[in-house]
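The instructor's notes for this session suggest beginning with a concrete chain rather than abstract definitions. Hand out the sequence below and ask the class to guess, before any prediction is shown, which regions might be ordered.
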Amino acid sequence: MTRFARIELRTTDVDAARAFYAAVLPGGADDVTALPAALRERGVPAHWLGHLGVDDVEAATRAFVALGASLPGPPRPGAPVTVRDPGGAVVALTPGGAPERRDVAWHQLLCGDLERTAAAYAGAFGWRFGPREGAQQRFGWDAGADAGLLVDVAAWPGAHPHWLFHFAVPDLDAAVAEVRARGGVVAAVVDTGGARVAVCEDPQGAAFALRG
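After discussion, reveal the predicted structure:
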């Protein structure tokens, strides 16, 4: 079963990011790395990068590319392969790995060309997709419970394709207050019908969501 094995924060200020998330998330943020200089020079902002754990990185990369994904740059030997999916979002492929953070409660992918993107993840990784519901489509890693949602990026004015990870918090209002107090931005607080969600940016510009 292919699912996220690692959720990495790539940021412009490692120490500040760790301090921010230590106050906002019960589990803080330990997997924090410096945003590579080459990406900074290209104007890439700080971001959370999901790593899909696969048995064979080379084979998985070939399969994903054959279904419309692309390689932003040449792979580095022995390193995870960063891939841009058919809908424009970046994801990494890594060998196996430990399970993702326990507090990631939902996985939301903002993408272009929703149908082609869903077909690529289903074909390359075996994900299960439910019926399309307007501008969105739920998915699961297998036949079990839903793990997340694909959303047509056109439904989010001003947004770009990316994976938005939802972190569970025991008190959404308290967490939102911490985000604001520590220099982050709360773009919206919405009721999804099953949970209240706050869409945020940390002080370095990385997007994430809090889920009550």
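Then share the key points. Residues 114-125 form the longest helix (12 residues). The longest strand covers residues 4-11.
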